[in-house]
């Protein structure tokens, strides 16, 4: 089996996400070949699909907000939770966050984040632990792009986000109307039309909202 870094370089091209062309990322150009390659590569390993090879609409919207309104992150300690390719954390680093940590439990995503941070000339630390539930981390801001696509994860993560918001942490979620987005305790912060691939989504544009978790929840 090749090293994750070699696998990522071999199976992706450097591209620019549609809504955030300022960033360069290692991205899959087509879904099927990468998925097949990953499957072969990961045959005996219990690793998830390559979410890190796409910039999901929720992450793109969140990243657009960070790039356009740097006051959310400038001078702050920022966690990009479930970072995937790391795009939102990279944007925070570009907009002068004091410290950026990307949390990812998928080791291939962790490697992709390091490569992508390098491509954009910024420093992003990677934490591969499952941080959900931790209230002692000391971040000012948590960014989370597209985390409501599975029910158990969405419920677990949202309960944690509410606790963090109650502790005074600013929690921003980018979401394109996923099934398990909770219907309450959310304040709309920005709204974008994000072009997506029909390989991944059931349509080629998704209206995507950046929500802030209400700290009075
Ligand atoms: C749909 S992708 C979104 C990636 C990125 N935020 C974006 O918008 O492009 C969801 C990511 O969540 C990660 N993930 C799932 N559970 C996690 C956990 N407990 N801690 C950190 N990452 C997690 C997965 O590995 C996957 O890369």
**Rg, alpha carbons:** 16 Å
The oligomeric state of the chains shown is single chain
User: What is the CATH homology-level superfamily?
Assistant: Vaccinia Virus protein VP39
The low-pLDDT segments are: none
Number of helices: 6
User: Taking all residues together, what is the mean pLDDT?
Assistant: 93
Order of adjacent strands in the largest pleated sheet: 5-4-3-6-7-9-8
Tally of DSSP β-strands? 9
What are the secondary-structure elements, in order, as H or E?
Answer: HEEHHEHEHEEHEEE
What is the number of independent domains?
1
Decide which structural class fits the backbone: alpha/beta
Shape: globular
Bound molecules: S-adenosylmethionine
* Main sheet specs: 7 strands, mixed
Distance between the amino and carboxyl termini: 47 Å
Strand content is: 15-25%
- Shape-level CATH architecture: 3-Layer(aba) Sandwich
- What is the level 1 CATH name? Alpha Beta
Q: Residue share in helices? A: 25-40%
Q: At the third CATH level, what is the topology name? A: Rossmann fold
Protein model, in words:
The chain has 217 residues and is of the alpha/beta class. The chain has one domain: 3-Layer(aba) Sandwich (Rossmann fold), CATH 3.40.50. The chain contains 6 helices and 9 strands, in the order αββααβαβαββαβββ. It has helices at residues 4-11, 31-41, 57-68, 87-94, 107-119, 151-166; strands spanning 13-15, 25-27, 77-81, 99-103, 125-127, 141-145, 170-175, 186-195, 205-213. The strands form 2 sheets. The chain has a 7-stranded mixed beta sheet, with helices on both faces. It has a two-stranded antiparallel sheet with strand order 1-2. It binds S-adenosylmethionine (SAM). S-adenosylmethionine (SAM) binds at residues 48, 51-52, 55-56, 58-59, 82-85, 87, 103-106, 109, 130, 132, 145-146, 149, 153. S-adenosylmethionine is lined by residues 48, 51-52, 55-56, 58-59, 82-85, 87, 103-106, 109, 130, 132, 145-146, 149, 153.
